[in-house]
Structures are given as C-alpha cells and as structure tokens.
C-alpha cells in the first residue's frame, strides 16, 4: 500500500486545522473549537508518524544503495547490512502506525467499558473459569492504570462466579477490550477431578462500550424497576437493606440487576448504565448485520455463538481461532499479560478495514 498520498493529504489538512485554530474567532463557537482541537491532536500525531515513516523509507533506500557499492564482506558493507536489518523492522512498525492513523477513529474506542462474564457449559468448573477470566481482565486493567468497579456478581458454591459484571474506566479501554466478546473455552483438569482427566468448559464474555444518555433514550414507561435485599458477600450494610435494584426493559425483555453498592440510588444508576450499554450494543449489532457480507470476522459486535479463544492449561497454550494465533504463555496471560493477544487482533482489524477502504 502506497502511504505517501495519505501522508500528504493529512499533512495538508493538519495545516488547515492549525490555521483555523490560530484564528481567535474559532473560539466563538466552543463546540467547534473543541472538535478542531481534537482533530488537531490526532493529525499532529499522524503527521509525526508519517514523517518518521518517510524518513525511515529514505534511510533504508540509502543503506541499500550503499550495500550495492560496497563489497559485502567489507566493514562498511557489514554496517550497511546491519542497518538494513534494523530499518526493515522499523519501517514495518512505522507503516502499521500510519495505516492505523488513516482509518477514521471509532468514537466508542475512548469510552469506558462494561464487561459481563457468564459461566457456560461445564458446571462448577465453568464458574471457576469465569472467576479466573475476571481476575485476568482486572489485572490487565490495573496494569494499564484503569479503574475497575464491580457492578454485580453471582458466586458459585466452590468460589467461582456464575456471573460477574464489572466496569472499567480509563483511556482507550474499549479500543483494547472490544475483541474479547465471544465464547471462551478452557481445557484443564478440574480440582474436583480425581482421575486427572482434562475437561472442557466454556464461558461467554460480553464487552459493551458504556452508553451515554444521548445514545439510548430510556422512557420511564418502558421500565419496570424493583428493589430487593442483596445476598452473598458484601457486608452487613449490603445484605440487610433493600439496596439491590432490578430493571426490566419491557420492549426488549432485557433484565439488569445491580447489587454491589449499599446505596439503592447508586445501584439504580449503575443498572441503567448497563441497560443503556446493552441496548446500544444491540442497536450497533443490528446496523452492522446489514453489512455482514463485507466482513469476515464480525469482531466485537456481540456474535457469541462461535468459540473465539481456547485456553489449554496442560499445554500452557492459548489460541485465538479468529486469527489463528497460538501462544505458549498461558500462565502469563492468566496473570493479565494480554498485549500479545490484543495487539495482533488490533492489527488484523486494521488490515480488514484498510482492505475494505481500498476495495
């Protein structure tokens, strides 16, 4: 893909936005000024990446030309070889950064995220794996400096979670988590297995961009809101007051329950946030389905009928089936080191979108 025309186009636009922001009249309209400022920040980063890419390409061409004029075994020839090897890696990395910048940003990428994990096939072992996934995601979030807040959970008898719903707040949370919607399969020997046989269990993960009130309108007449006493861990204040809130959306039948906070009002606000996010996801999925023929993967749109990832503990292996990626570092992944999975998924998504853009 020839990136030079894109770099030139965005560089011209950067100059236009910079000139517009230098005009004091631009701030007469605060909303327009804010939009220009955001565009300026994005274009400034893109132009810097573009200039770095062009310099790397030029340096690589110079090194290759030098190698053509020098004996391969000479000191200068060997230096050129080493420089070419380094610059080829740099060029690939810089090209990927520029390609990502070409694509229009997804407004949802910067939103906070709600993750819902539910035990599937496998009984108690599935619930234990749901708790492991919850720990994996929260560890990754903490390493990124993001804030995690539990919204609701349903513990199992053996210490797992039949269901856990939590919110992660921070910069670009949804951008990195959105590819994890789907069925997650685990293969391991359960603690309750006396014969040492490997069992297969599943959990479903739903990743929802937090919806705002302007995204989804909730009409009071469409809501059935009830309160009840919370149960399970949480302390006396949670368990002895009618603080748990359940919201039913009559038109769709969606039910959301939130019981993690002592305050009934806080639980109600969180339940409505989850409901809006589920309704927004459904709305986006319906719109995306119209263009399903143009997409092969349906990444992150809520299609959870197919297994997306397998965690094989005996082999210390994790496989993402959508991009046929296999890593033998499962123990590190379960400790929250998710970048080796996240980065290839993001790169694959960029490739798909670029292919659609140039088709």
What can you tell me about this protein's structure?
It is a single chain. With 359 residues, the chain is of the alpha+beta class. 46% of the residues lie in helices and 20% in strands. The chain is built from 9 helices and 11 strands. The strands form 2 sheets. The protein has an 8-stranded mixed β-sheet, sandwiched between helices. The longest helix has 40 residues, at 30-69. It is flat. Mean pLDDT is 85; it is low at 232-240 and 291-305.
Secondary-structure blueprint of this entry?
Blueprint: H1 4-21, H2 30-69, H3 75-102, E1 113-119, H4 124-143, E2 147-155, E3 161-169, H5 173-177, E4 182-188, E5 199-209, E6 223-228, H6 236-239, E7 244-249, E8 254-258, H7 264-289, E9 307-312, E10 317-320, E11 325-327, H8 330-334, H9 339-358
Parallel strand pairs: 4-9
Antiparallel strand pairs: 1-3, 1-5, 2-3, 4-5, 6-7, 7-8, 9-10, 10-11
Helix pairs in contact: 1-2, 2-3, 3-9
Entry keywords:
3-stranded antiparallel beta sheet, 46% helix, 359 residues, alpha+beta, flat, 8-stranded mixed beta sheet
Shape: flat
Q: Please, what is the average pLDDT?
A: 85
Protein structure class: alpha+beta
Number of strands: 11
| Main beta sheet strand tally, sense and closure | 8 strands, mixed
Please count the helical segments.
Answer: 9
| Gap between N and C termini | 12 Å
Strand proportion, as a percent range, falls in 15-25%
Q: What series of H and E elements makes up the topology?
A: HHHEHEEHEEEHEEHEEEHH
Radius of gyration based on Cα positions = 25 Å
Weakly predicted, low-confidence segments: 232-240, 291-305
- How are the strands ordered across the major sheet? 2-3-1-5-4-9-10-11
What is the helix fraction of residues, given as a range?
40-55%
